[in-house]
Amino acid sequence: MSTMATRKTPLLFSLFALVVGGAIGYGIGVKAEQSTSAPNLQACQQHLQSQTERLDQRAEQYQALVTSNEQQSQQLVQTTKDLTAITEQMEKQKADFAEQLALLDQKKQQLSVNQKKLEVTKKKLDTEVVKLKTTTTKQQVVIDKSQQYFKRQAEMQANVKETQASVIELNQAAKGFKKACDEFKSGNSWNWVSKKDCDNYDQQMKLLKEKQAVLVTQQQALAAINVEIGKK
């Protein structure tokens, strides 16, 4: 039983004693007059019984009130416990949320750092791409020049080969004219044909020397371009 019920119980007994005492006193007074009026004693007993019943009803009402207060007190205690548990749970959730926010902030900072690193890396890559394009352009120029050199080399080789063939042909022709011319100069042949052979020989030798000079020039140019190709 609660403290309130404990305090109100003596008050109930005091009230009960007061009513009972009054009823008994009233009964004693009536008993003294019993010889004169018997109906009054019966009325007193009925009144006492009525007061007792009323007192019992009030006692029952009071007990019901005490019981209700105890139940409400227990409900209040349980509600307080529930509120305490809810408060603790909310505090825990609040702490969890704070921790999650801190983690998110750390991730945000890390992402910012990574973003800056990526930007630096991108700038470096852009620089490397520019350098690579420049190098590629230079290499393409070198390749183009090399192709031009090789093309020129092939042309020069063909020219040298052609000139060498002409020199051989002129040399052989000159030898034929030289033999006839030598016979003419030795006095064994005085006809005009032999004289013509000497003229042809002189002409062939002139052409041969010119071709040989051209061949030397072509060979020098070919040697020079071979040197340039060797440097590539």
From TrEMBL:
Question: Coiled coil where?
Answer: 45-107
Q: Which keywords, in A-to-Z order, does the entry hold?
A: Coiled coil
The superkingdom listed in its UniProt entry is: Bacteria
Q: What is this protein called?
A: Chromosome segregation ATPase
- The answer to whether UniProt assigns keyword Coiled coil to this entry is yes
